[in-house]
């Protein structure tokens, strides 16, 4: 039995020719679905997919032939081999998704029958699903949903190739249907219980994504400075702090080796998995703030100094750093609270810790070491720091995104020769000098600043806000922040990178497409911010609507909804939706063209007759029934005859003289009046009481 | 077991859909189920939901629900595509056994358009593109026939998979009117009619016996004396002279002439003879047991004879659940009539 939309009577050969228009919709949809993947997929794969789909289309036009089985197998083997070579055995969701795209591309060569068409439909729908794993912004969501709509149109065209009205009609029909089902979709989305993952599949792509890394070589951060991608967005419960106070600490680099700063402690390995992506729910308290961080594939979270964890998806570690329990492979939301700033500081640094923060390479950068010795001679710890910052402030040091190469003794070079560098250079050099002077110091990497989003209700921190600064241990005061960049380029700290390098013109100089590059063009800036605001709300309320947000929302509803109630509710919604659909169609049929007022009145009359023991016989005319009724119930004889006559005159009226609508209505009214009269008369004669005992007219057996 | 279930189901269907030449599709007689493609679609939704759960991806949830709702909406649309559609059997055709007999049906759409449905009997299906609301379309549905007699398609299946092919809604129409299937013509052997026909018997034959000769191609079993050898020498065609004289009475085609032959075969012979006579425009009469059609020569006469052959010995089919008499005047109240029917049967 053929089950794929071809009726059994259609031989396979006939389904060979799929309707071109249906196929075209599918191809268009495929191209649309590829666009979100363009930045992720290797170029050859995109070209291959386009070529394969194009081949299928040319074959449909009859210009080329589809490959036979051998050629097809050959193409498949070659492409799979190329794929395997390019991924080199790494199996992640990312590579799996690429393979899936390749499989979809290959399927185009094998689209002959209706069955293939459906298979293609399924895998394209799933491709849209896969796209959502990588892009969740509102415009990509719209692109994906749009592609699914195209697929549905394709199916519609396949099933009704010669539908009149063309594309507009099918769009209207589909649009109407989508509008009708929208409430159910929204209800399901809100109430469907967000379960914990059934098993964990890491999404970690293995590819380095944009963002700060856990090593710092001079120059790393200046690469980041060329990226305007978002790092995270923050909503504050209270007022947004000043730009200069917005130091987002991410990680601490305390080990200098061969010119590279690293984390000395080994981060314990944790199996990749999921973290709650929607930590922190409910109203923000005045001192709280809520961070929506883009995926980093790392465990670190960014926090202002002196914060405490509020949401349970991150933990505070030593050094006042925050870590997720697992790498953040999708955007993730967490909540922190600004704690008391005048908390009693740590009184002493453990010996082991002190050693760690004083570690230096055995040799190198002699002039910097000499400078440290010199500073130390005349000052206490605070004095050393202040005079070092003073040096930065007074001498012609420059803050630049185009630092010169400083291969050997980079710190000496920077401090005494070039005097041009980026925050990472200065932070590294400062730490070096402080450590040489015997002051425990460490490099802190994170972000600094951030730009207010549209309306000023939230803060957007971008990759070019990446920053490195220094923390030094001062006895009696604990760790204090020392930012050499603030001394050299106050603009960077006061108002951001754009102003700091405005003279140089190097802001996003390699990033032509970024809207931030054109920040001075008001309309671009406005549009970009508005788009970001929409996306932010989208990510917070739609994308980020997961277990905790749901439970929070539900707890605000009366009745205290738990997981189980949600399950029941979902089942209820589905059931109710099906019921409504059923009822609607029932109503429509009941009120359908087939049943006009006359037939309803007639049916009512037949019921009435049945109730008084004169059920209508098969094929009996109204007049005959009226006659029998008159014999059985003389009281209603006249009304019954009149009723029958009116019915007859309606149904047997010559078609030549069309009845006016008004006459029609009058007749109908008369019929209804007569029905009421008959009922009253029958009641009076006491015949109709039995009707309550036998509510169903059919139950009265009648024997001819 | 499955046969038992199937026959139960069929008899249930037959009870539910009484034989009638007019069939309005309503919820009572419309059925809807997902197709295999629809089942696969359900599976796909399940996989998508799993993906959404595992990756905690709200948008995948959203799309899954959207497609699920589209499925439900499609259910509604598929059902509505057929409901309200009214089928009337306009004409049950005629034809020879073994051929496809054409039934003419009129499909009138109710309040909604009816799009892309098919009518099918057994393995033959006729797609119908689009019937706009309130309009009607005539459909010619070929029904395969095997035997002569009355042909009443057991069930005409009306099916739609619009809009997405994920669901199919279907119903059946069980027409009362039957087509008449003529016996399949089989070339008759030469026989003599037993019917006495006074005026013609003696002098219809010429002394030479070949003035009413009818030429026909040679076929196996013909005596070699009868072959027109002269003609064969001239044209190379083996032609046999069929003298009417040898066929017995020229005016009567007689059922009893083929003594000892199976009745159905005799009817087939007669069918062939009727057609041959009809073609040549000869006068002929038909003698069947219990029925005699006087000699005449016209196309209507030919058809009449064929019909007589077709239904000889056959009962006109009647269904126990035939629509009550008179309902055609107000077919729209079939529901209430149906209620009454339960009482009367």
Summarize the model shown.
The complex is a heterodimer of chains A (704) and B (345). Chain A is α+β, with helices and mostly antiparallel strands and 704 residues long. Chain A contains 24 helices and 19 strands.
Most extensive interface, chain pair and sizes = A-B, 93 and 79 residues
Radius of gyration of chain A, Cα only, in angstroms? 38 Å
Helix content of chain A: 40-55%
N-to-C series of helices and strands of chain B: HEEHHEEEEEEEEEEHEHEEHEEHH
What does the model show?
The complex is a heterodimer of chains A (704) and B (345). Chain A has 704 residues and is of the alpha+beta class. Among the domains of chain A are: 14-163, no CATH class; 549-590; 597-699, no CATH class. Chain A contains 24 helices and 19 strands. Chain A has a six-stranded antiparallel sheet, covered by helices on one side. In chain A, a hairpin with a 5-residue loop joins strand 10 (314-316) and strand 11 (322-324). The model of chain A is unreliable at 1-15 and 690-704 (pLDDT under 50). With 345 residues, chain B is of the alpha+beta class. Chain B has two domains: 14-171, no CATH class; 198-311, no CATH class. Chain B has eight helices and 17 strands. Chain B has helices at 2-16, 36-54, 58-82, 198-201, 229-235, 263-280, 299-311, 334-344; strands at 22-24, 31-34, 86-92, 94-96, 100-108, 114-121, 124-131, 136-144, 149-151, 156-160, 167-173, 179-182, 214-217, 239-242, 252-254, 284-288, 291-296. Chain B has a five-stranded antiparallel sheet with strand order 2-11-10-6-7. The relative contact order of chain B is 0.13. The interface between A and B is large, with 93 and 79 residues.
Main traits of this protein?
heterodimer; A: 704 residues; alpha+beta; 6-stranded antiparallel sheet; 5-stranded antiparallel sheet; elongated; disordered N terminus; disordered C terminus; B: 345 residues; 2 domains; 4-stranded antiparallel sheet; 27% strand
